[in-house]
Design goal:
The chain contains ten helices and no strands. It is mostly helical.
Length: 193
C-alpha cells in the first residue's frame, strides 16, 4: 500500500473515531486523535491543515485539564501533562515547517518549560535541542542586518531572567537576532548535559 494511501485511510478512521469521542465529550481522546490526524496531514505535506488540526488538539488538551475529583488521580494528571507536551511540540514543529519561526519559538519555549517543570529529562533535552536549533536560525537570519551589534554576554542574559528575555524576544526582533547565538549556546549546553 503506498504511504499516501495508507495515511488517507488512517485519516478516515481517525475522523470516524473523532466523531464518536466528540459526541462523548472526551476532550483528552479528542486531543489525541486530532494530534494523530495532524501528524498524518503533516506527513502528506498539508502543513496549514496540520496546523489547524494541531490547534484543535491543543485546545482539547487544555479543556481536558484535570479538575475537582479528576485532579485526585495522579495518572490523570500525568496523562494530561504528557498530552500537553505532545500538543506543544506538535505546534512548534508545524509552525517551523510553515516557516513561522517566531511562533515555533513560542511553542518550543512552552514545551521546554513544561518538560522542565515535570522533570521529564528526555522531553527537556528535546526542547533544549529544538530551542538551540531555532536560535541558530534567528542568528543566521539576523547576521546581515545586525552584524555590527554587540550581543549581551551569557551572564547578562541570565541576570535578566527568562521572563524578561522572553518578553524582549517577543517584542523586539533585533534583540532576538542579536542575542540568538548566545541563547543557542545555552540550550546546546543544556541539551548535552
Amino acid at each position: 500500500v503506498p504511504p499516501g494511501k495508507a495515511l488517507r485511510k488512517a485519516m478516515d478512521n481517525l475522523t470516524r473515531a473523532l466523531e464518536v469521542v466528540t459526541k462523548s465529550g472526551d476532550h483528552a481522546a479528542g486531543a489525541a486523535l486530532n494530534g494523530h490526524m495532524g501528524c498524518c496531514k503533516l506527513a502528506l505535506g498539508a502543513k496549514k491543515e496540520a496546523l489547524s488540526t494541531f490547534e484543535k488538539a491543543l485546545k482539547d488538551m487544555q479543556r481536558s485539564a484535570p479538575t475537582g475529583a479528576n485532579n485526585a488521580s495522579a495518572k490523570g494528571a500525568a496523562d494530561h501533562a504528557r498530552g500537553m507536551l505532545v500538543a506543544l511540540r506538535n505546534m512548534a514543529d508545524v509552525n517551523d515547517a510553515l516557516g513561522d519561526e517566531r511562533a515555533a519559538l513560542k511553542f518550543a519555549k512552552r514545551y521546554h518549560a513544561q518538560a522542565r517543570e515535570l522533570g521529564d529529562r528526555v522531553a527537556s533535552a528535546d526542547g533544549a535541542k529544538r530551542l538551540a536549533t531555532l536560535y541558530v536560525v534567528f542568528a543566521h537570519k539576523g547576521r546581515p542586518n545586525f552584524k555590527h551589534e554587540s550581543p549581551l554576554d551569557a551572564e547578562a542574559l541570565e541576570a535578566m531572567g527568562d521572563a524578561r528575555v522572553d518578553k524582549e524576544e517577543e517584542e523586539d526582533v533585533r534583540f532576538l537576532c542579536i542575542n540568538a547565538r548566545q541563547r543557542a549556546l545555552v540550550f546546546m549546553k543544556e541539551y548535552r548535559a
